[in-house]
Write a structure and sequence with these properties.
Blueprint (H helix, E strand, L loop, with lengths): L1 E4 L3 H7 L2 H21 L3 E6 L2 E5 L8 H13 L14
Antiparallel strand pairs: 1-3, 2-3
C-alpha cells in the first residue's frame, strides 16, 4: 500500500479559486494514477489531495517496482504549472 499527499495544498486552497484548485488536484491525481499503473498498481481511493494505492509489494520481485513508483511519484512535478513548486511526501 502506498499513500501520496500533495504538499502545500492548504496554501494552494487559499491562493487559487476552487476551479483552479480542482484542476491542480486533478492533474496530481492523474499523475499518481499513471505512475502507479506503470508499475502494476492502482489507486484504490482518492481522498481530497491524497491517494491510497494498492498492488505495490514491498517484498519479493515487485519490491523494486514499488520503490520505483514511490520515487517517481515523489519526484513528479509536471502535473500542473501552478503547483510545480509543490511536491509529494
Amino acid at each position: 500500500m502506498m499513500f501520496c499527499d500533495l504538499v502545500g495544498s492548504t496554501p494552494l486552497a487559499t491562493r487559487y479559486d476552487p476551479e483552479d484548485l480542482r484542476e491542480i488536484v486533478g492533474a496530481y491525481h492523474r499523475c499518481v494514477a499513471d505512475t502507479v499503473g506503470r508499475f502494476g498498481g492502482f489507486v484504490a481511493k482518492y481522498m481530497g489531495d491524497s491517494t491510497k494505492s494498492f498492488a505495490l509489494s514491498t517484498l519479493g520481485p515487485k519490491a523494486e517496482s514499488s520503490k520505483c513508483a514511490a520515487m517517481q511519484c515523489r519526484g513528479a512535478g509536471s502535473w500542473g504549472s501552478k503547483a510545480r513548486r509543490h511536491g509529494m511526501n
